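Researcher: First entry.
Model:
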Amino acid sequence: MTDDPGRRRSTRRSIPQVLEDKLGRNWDRQTKQDKLDRFIKRTFPFFVVIGLVLTVIMTFMDPVGLSFSTLLMSLCWAYIVVFVVIGLISRFLSESEVLSSKYTFLVFIVIATLLAALLWFLFGTAYGLNNFVVGFFTFLTRVTADTSFLSVLVSIYVLTFVVVMVSYGVLAVVVAYFRSNYHRILYSLESPKDGRLKRVATRLFNVPSIIDVTEVTIDPEVDDGHFNKRLFKNLALAQIIVGLTLSSYIFLNPVFLQTIPFDRMLTFMALVSLFLCAIIVPCSILRSLGAEAHSAAPRPYVLWLGMRNRLYQAYFILAITMTLLGISVFTGMDVLRIAITYAGYLVFLVLMSLTVSFIYVNTFYVSFKNGIVRNFLRRKYE
């Protein structure tokens, strides 16, 4: 949407004064994020095609041979490469960070160094964990390296770079598409017609069928200019929960345990974990927006709670996990192997979740929230 001055003045006169006082006079200004969004939406379809081409090439070049696990791994690695490229571009086109990048860069280096030292002195060459870490470096650089402290350190640095860049790339794509379209999804709940978008929104937000939504409102948090610690912790925790849930379907599945090697299974889940934010962030931003659906009921329906319940469904998740665990034990699967797989994956999941959450809150969150607010208010009051 172009930033027409006359349009902005008209909108500003129309919105309630209390909202303008809360959001500031420049609530609808154009930002660097708008330019990044346009770039992403213009080029992302081409990146998707490139990812598919790379998947085919990697699948047929894999020395293991053609198999389902080879296809999955090739798909993951192909889009890791794609999102690293998108991340590098997004890093330089994104909004100003809340915490300066020169400080965060040093923090990442220190944490990566401490992690490498911890892994080496705790495990050395035992249990295969450091061999797995060095395997990432070998795959990415095609340079064969023996497992040593130096190779583990360099591998952790390479992994840190990949995780950071992929995080920027995935978040940039999620923000670009949801930032420009989320207000349409919210407003579809008000439509008297049972259209496709309304059905999708009703299911997405888990709105009960007995509720006839008459109005959707927002009451966004005013937290610009500082690092939102609560959001950082909640987002990281949500990614860990979803990651562990997803891993249960893989690590406790007897078919996968018998057919997929340990290192491939762990690599696959570690790569998939980088994309979990695409599921969590759209739910998280609803809470920051304070989005509610009003009806004839005495209290409004809180949309982020409905979406969270749709994502988690805790009782179903617990039942499936315990069922798969029982099947694995009953069929004679190695319980120790299952436990080691979980522990190794959990280490990477926690670190990845913290990294993605930090980048989101520090770089994308404010412009993401303000962009949705701007589009929502423009449609409501123009």
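Researcher: Second entry.
Model:
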Amino acid sequence: MEQRATVTGLELAELIDEKIEPLYRFALLLTGDPAAAQQALIDVCTACAPQIEAYRDAANRVAFIVAKLRARCLIASPGNTGSSPAIARQFQSMGEPERSALALFYLGIFPAQEIAALLHMSLEDLSGILERGREHLRAAAITS
């Protein structure tokens, strides 16, 4: 019989504390709104607490939180970039999974193989998405 490791509230808090900054930046990149990003992060961390035990190691727990946070942010994303700089507007105008792929890659939360798995795509597809995304953002930087 397989034994499950229990995750205490303290362990979950430590995991979240360790990753809070990149998780918040990820949420901010997806929503384009600081308040929406903060609320999404709070909601997801609260909702994930009872389910986190199912994941054995910290990397899988973070992947679970990121997947839930991504889903929550895409729902919360107001689509309003307001007075954001040109590059931020360009980033917000990208579709999915391009925004998520670029955000996860540049924030360094996961290696490329794990990003591809999280977004349900091949490494080849991820590579193409990252290349096109960088070109898209580079063009915005040149014209701004």
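Model: Note on the second entry: The mean pLDDT is 81.
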